[in-house]
Every structure is written in C-alpha cells, then in structure tokens.
Amino acid sequence: MTDQEAWSTNANEAIVISVVQAGESVPKTLSTFHPQFTYPIFGEEERIFGYQGLHINLRFAAHDLRPHFEISYDKKFKAVGDTKATDLLETLKPWTTEESFQRTSSFDSHLQNDASAKDFCPPGELLECYASRGRNFEIWSGELSDPAMRLLISRVQILISFFIEGGTPLELDDQEWTLARWCVYFVYEKITPSIPHASPYSIVGYSTSYRFITYTLSTLTNRTSKLSAQSFTLPPSTPLHPSSLPSRIRISQFLILPSHHSHGHGSHLYNAMIKTFLASPTCIEITVEDPNEAFDDLRDYCDYSNLTSNGTFSQIKLNTNIDPKLSANKIGVRVPTSRLLDKSLLESLRHKNKIAPRQFYRLVEMYLFVQIAPHARQAGASRLTQRGRASNPDDRAFYYWRLLVKQRVYKQNKDVLIQLDRGERADKVEQTVGEVAGDYERLLRGMENWKKAEKKSSSNGGGTAANTEEKRDRGKRKKIVEDDEDEDVAMGDSKRARSEAL
C-alpha cells in the first residue's frame, strides 16, 4: 500500500446516514444506510484524502429533517507543500444548511427537548393515507413557494446527490413565480413515538414536479378572442398563478429511502402524483425527467395497471385482417400503421390519460404483445413463414405486432439507419425488435411479481406493496442523454434512451 492509499478513504463507506427521533434519554436511531453516490461532492473517484479511521455521520430528525454532521477520525495528514487533507467542512457546506454543523450536544439537546415536535405536521395538503404491512403512511403535497416546504427541501436535498445519479439540488432562492411551479410530495410514516413529546412522523421519501407552461393553439385562440373584447395590460391586474395556465408537468426527483425499499412506497407515491395531475384541468401532459431503469420499471408497472383498470386498453384492437397482398415480401410493399390501429382513437386515449407519446405507445405495444399467446411470441420469427397469411391468429397477430414495432424503430432512427445498406439496415431493425420483445417479457414477469407482492401485503393487513425499488447496477454514469421524451430512441436500446437519474 502506498502512502497515498493509506490516507485515502472510500467516501461511500465513510459516510453513514441515519434517521433519528427523540428517545428516552438519547436520540433513537430509526434507520441507517450508506450513500450510493458521492462523486458530486468528493469527485469522480469518490474518495477522501488525508484521514485514517474517518467516520462521517449525517443524521436527520425524522419529522422536520433537521440535519447534523458529526466528523471523527484517528489521524489527519500533515500538509506537505500543496498536498493537504481534504477540508471536509468547506467541501460539505455548499451541499447542506449551516445548522448541519452545530455541536453534537446542541443537536441532541434540541431533538430531545423540542416540545413542539409532538405538534409537527408536514406542510401542504394531505393527499392520501395508506397502509402497508400493518404500518400507516401519509402523502403530503405543497408548493416550493411555501417557506415551510422550502425549509424541508433545503435540509434534505443533499440526499439527491447521494442517491440520484446526475441529480442536482433545487435552486431555493429563485423568484416566487418560479418556485410556485415546483411541487413537492413527501411520504411520511405515522409511528408511535417512544416518548410523549416526540413527533409521530418519520420520513420515508419524497418527489418533486415542475410545471412547463404550454401555449397550445387553443390557448392562443382563446387569449386572442379575449383580447379583442377587452383591453389588456402588463402586469395583469390579477396575478396569474402557474397552476392556472396550461402546462406539461414533469416529474423531476423521486427518492424512497433505502430503509423503505420494497414496501410499495414508490408505487403509492407515483400513483398519488398521477392522480393529482389527472385531476388538474390545466395539466395537459405528464412527463418524467431522465428516469433510470428502476424508475422506468416502476412507471411502466403503474401506468400499465392504470390503463388496464380504467378501461383504456380494452378499447384498443390490433387489426390482423389485412389484404395479403400488403404483407407480400416485395420491395415497395407497405402496410400503413393506420390499417393496423385506429390512430385517432389512440391519440384521444393518450390525451385523456395525459401520457407522453413515447410512453403511451410503448404501453400500447406491450398490451398488444400480451394479447398474443406466449408460445407464439416466444417462438420468435421462426413461425412467421406465412407472414400475414398465417392461419393461426396468434402467428398473424405477432407478425403484424412486429411490423408495428419495426415501423416505430425505423421512424425514430431513420437518420442513422439510412446510412446503412439495405441488408444491414434490416438486420439492425430486426435485432432491435427482438430486444424490445425480450424487454417486454421481462416487464411482464416483473408485473406478475408485483401483483403477488400486492396480494401478500393485503393478506398481512396492509395496502399495495410493490417490489419496485429494485437493486441496480452501480456502474458509473453510463448514459445516453435525452432532454425530452419526444426525442429519438437510440438503436439497440430496447426501451428508451435514458440517463440514470434515480
């Protein structure tokens, strides 16, 4: 071991995060876990130089999220020229609030003696109460323009850098108009405190969403007609609130603490947010900012379940009674998508459910895929020698389903594919369709496990318990950046282009 290695510490291992509550005589620890990422704070290598036996304890009060850093070490490197130990306080200060660095005794004393804790109530509006595995939980929502909500976020959002790859803290000193476009959704557990004056609330996780004001043709038409009938001045006499304007709402940050994974809280939080967006008359469309694979799966499970239960999927049919001449294997012969699906109906259903185009049409593909007998779809293309003329209805449906996916893949990747010769282009599209089918099979298995977990939780006296917060590969930041859900898919990605963000 070199001298440098002897003084280098893995930041992910050195930092221990705890959620604490007032106890009988000293603070009681409710849960403990390590961060998943520390590179935003300590650099790409996620290492801290200049200490031996380093321990960094970050504690959060379970109810109001008051943070506290406690740093200890056995030895500290003595500076040699420009080489010196990492200044931990200066490194951590930009990522948390000033109160994080108070004395340990002060933090403990405040937590133990705060008589107001028993009256603490999360800021905002109570959206939903639910039970899981015999425990009770609540989801609260409020705007970031609310000072109480902003205080909670200022305290807890260092966790975004610890657990959301590529995640960045929110700017909390922005204009009120901008802050009002942010909404925060907290999940709290209602617990029985160990002492009478402790709070019954304990943090589980939270999410944020942002409103992008959308000026549609109908919006402009309505505005123009009103302007012709009356004078208009800026600023308007009555202040406009972002929620009163047509918007695309984007789910931004989404975090369930590791100690609460696999209990269904992710699906409860996601569905509560979607329900809120659907009820908003000014929300036009729901999107997600740079989801990672785990969140993609959670979203797919929830959206698929919602579209099934609200009757959307039951209205969608794949037409397999196509003129055989259109399925002939000849250059120039095409089957228009409009012959296979009712595109006007699909758009109507998409707008009703406020789902972004890419996500909605993937879900439609998955639903149509499920309608095909497993033996037919698992056999792959080997059974499709008769193409659209096959006598077996499942073979015929699988042929036309594959045709739909090929059309989508080609349209979304035309600029890349057009540079290949015809044979290579066909092989690439065929490969991608196979990957899409394989990923849908994986998702179907995941949904079956999800349903079993729901039943298990219900039998234990709780609500939904979806095993959606899956463990994932902690490989470093392999990402394909996608700024908008309507951008093109990258070839070879069986789902969507994505950068990991959860």
Description:
The protein is an alpha+beta fold and 502 residues long. It is 37% helix and 18% strand. The chain has helices spanning 3-6, 11-14, 39-42, 88-92, 104-113, 147-156, 158-163, 176-179, 217-229, 265-279, 293-309, 337-340, 343-353, 357-370, 374-378, 393-412, 414-417, 422-459, and strands at 8-10, 15-21, 28-33, 47-49, 51-52, 55-61, 67-72, 75-76, 125-132, 135-143, 182-190, 201-213, 247-256, 283-288. It has a six-stranded mixed β-sheet with strand order 9-10-11-12-13-14. The chain has a four-stranded mixed β-sheet with strand order 3-2-6-7. The chain is globular and about 80 Å long. The relative contact order is 0.10. The model is unreliable at 223-229 and 461-502 (pLDDT under 50).
What's the helix and strand layout?
Blueprint: H1 3-6, E1 8-10, H2 11-14, E2 15-21, E3 28-33, H3 39-42, E4 47-49, E5 51-52, E6 55-61, E7 67-72, E8 75-76, H4 88-92, H5 104-113, E9 125-132, E10 135-143, H6 147-156, H7 158-163, H8 176-179, E11 182-190, E12 201-213, H9 217-229, E13 247-256, H10 265-279, E14 283-288, H11 293-309, H12 337-340, H13 343-353, H14 357-370, H15 374-378, H16 393-412, H17 414-417, H18 422-459
Parallel strand pairs: 2-6, 13-14
Antiparallel strand pairs: 1-4, 2-3, 5-8, 6-7, 9-10, 10-11, 11-12, 12-13
